[in-house]
From TrEMBL, chains A, B:
InterPro entries: HAD-like_sf (IPR036412), HAD_sf (IPR023214). It comes from the Bacteria. The keyword Signal applies. Transmembrane segments: none annotated. It comes from Blastopirellula marina DSM 3645. This is Nonspecific acid phosphatase. The keyword Cell division does not apply. The lineage of its organism: Bacteria, Pseudomonadati, Planctomycetota, Planctomycetia, Pirellulales. Keywords: Signal.
Length: 318, 318
């Protein structure tokens, strides 16, 4: 009929995904949950999708980019902190000795986080991150960090949104850090970012309403913390979750494993597997960043899609 | 012209608001921030509105309705807790001695909260609240609690949504409690509810992903906690905030007072003043529930609208 004659081939919503079983599995799921005649149809209000950030939406080597921000911030603040020149971990940072920093362990890392993320107002922190993102370059690629995002994942988020999903970022990184660029870079508004946080308090400072980030850890949105962060912020279980490491294991369990015998809500789990040493990095079980082991082992049994960056993606960065 | 001739009088978006300065102030603000040619135009993404719940969207006398839920829950659980018959505050609850409960003070109230809200999975808690709301009646009006909501405020939220505001509830009450009915009662989805919370943890229990509410207080979303809750959940300052008590003072400050000399974002603060002893309740400075004193005193100077329930509303409940 004329209606059919008029309908052109629809535009490919995932042009940077090579044809194959990964792309087919994603499209099949989205069509199934949005087809009113399907037994797996999911109402719009419940189409929640959650994406990890580091290693899932952008690169994370040789160090989480927020870690690189912290190191640059130490260098920037150092002139006002003379005692740092002989105090660890600052001393090692200032000498450019990253291994020395790492060797000082978790308490040192926490000191770095507090020195660079706390005792500052929310607005000042935002400005600092925004300024850094505008000028900082990745030590190996020379690219601005917001250009080291994964084009296929941008397309996937846009495809889900076009199908009335509400797309969230659920990151082990700092919620305040990611919110600075989430809207401009990923089209994810700040209120759809869940992440780790320091405590904050509200004060009227000289008559000005101020949110002050304090030096106390509030919440770590990683591993078993991810479902808790989702529960707190969203209050519904996602039906689609994407990650790249064992930090996402529990989020994928929460998304895809039925909560009781009557629960027949469909759920899709996706793992980005870093397999492309030429165009990006290749790592999994032995990496100190983005270690992927347990989730990789569980994926076949749980039916989680393992995306092979090398084979499945025709393009990495935009 | 014919275009003008065709344009009928637009439907009144606030039919339960009497004509007068309150209604006019609301309409004037909404028209101003949504008019592209106005210097106060606010882009859609930044049109965040936050509403307190108890006393702002529904009644709160003689006790917060969540408190009445807790008392009913104690009665329901009592057969399995024989020691409650001679332990305060449970003993007083079971005797129906509300004054006795109150007299035992905050530690007793906390005991009640933990006994009725903790050591339970998120899903079990939801079911319990849903069942209670379906059958419980208010001790004085005999109405189901979800019928004791304010029709004018429903219209106000719908009016804001029609003007592309994202409407949130920011409640001192429990986030998990309010989320059970927010979508059905107020058209506010669970992800747009901010509230007080207990800690939660995620576990795989016999292979089932489970969120367990624990007996540790996580966050009190009241007074200076409200701007912090907004900062955490939304990550932007609202441009419209409505409350009814001193618990909302800081939220109104955060919404309406410029954050620096360059900040010219418009902000609207609204206080529901309970002045109608005949149709609802009349109380403010001396009330043990919903005490309104400092915010009432500050309102004229800050330009906050004080809504007089008796004079401004032609209808209270739907
Ligand atoms: Ca990751
Ligand atoms: Ca209130």
């Amino acid at each position: 009929g004329s209606a059919l004659a008029q309908s052109a081939t629809p535009m490919d919503p995932l042009p940077s995904w090579n044809e194959g079983k990964s792309k087919a599995a994603i499209v099949e799921f989205v069509e199934r949950v949005t087809d009113q005649s399907s037994p797996d149809f999911v109402p719009v209000a419940e189409r929640i999708a959650t994406f990890d950030n580091d290693g899932t939406l952008w690169s994370e080597q040789p160090l989480y980019f927020q870690g690189l921000y912290a190191l640059d911030r130490v260098r920037k603040l150092a002139p006002d902190q003379p005692e740092w020149s002989n105090t660890e971990p600052f001393q090692s940072v200032l000498k450019g000795d990253l291994k020395g920093v790492m060797a000082t362990g978790m308490p040192a890392i926490e000191k770095l986080i507090f020195a660079t993320h706390a005792d500052i107002s929310g607005e000042e922190f935002q400005t600092s991150v925004r300024d850094w993102l505008a000028t900082a370059k990745h030590p190996q690629t020379g690219l601005p960090f917001t250009k080291m995002i994964f084009q296929p994942m941008l397309e996937l988020m846009a495809y889900l949104r076009a199908n009335d999903f509400k797309v969230y970022i659920v990151t082990g990184g700092g919620i305040d850090f990611v919110r600075v660029f989430s809207e401009g870079t990923y089209e994810v508004p700040p209120e759809q970012v869940v992440g780790s946080s320091l405590d904050a308090k509200f004060e009227m400072t000289n008559g000005i309403p101020t949110i002050l980030k304090t030096g106390k850890l509030d919440f770590i949105d990683d591993k078993a913390g991810k479902p808790v962060g989702i529960y707190r912020h969203i209050g519904r279980r996602p039906i689609f979750a994407a990650g790249n490491s064992d930090g996402d294991l529990q989020m994928l369990q929460y998304t895809t494993i039925p909560s009781d015998a009557k629960d027949n809500k469909p759920g899709f789990g996706l793992l980005v597997h870093h397999t492309d040493a030429r165009r990006e990095w290749a790592y999994d079980r032995d990496s100190h960043i983005g270690k992927l082991e347990k989730a990789l082992d569980d994926a076949p049994q749980q039916g989680w899609l393992i995306v092979d960056m090398k084979d499945d993606w025709s393009k990495i960065y935009p």
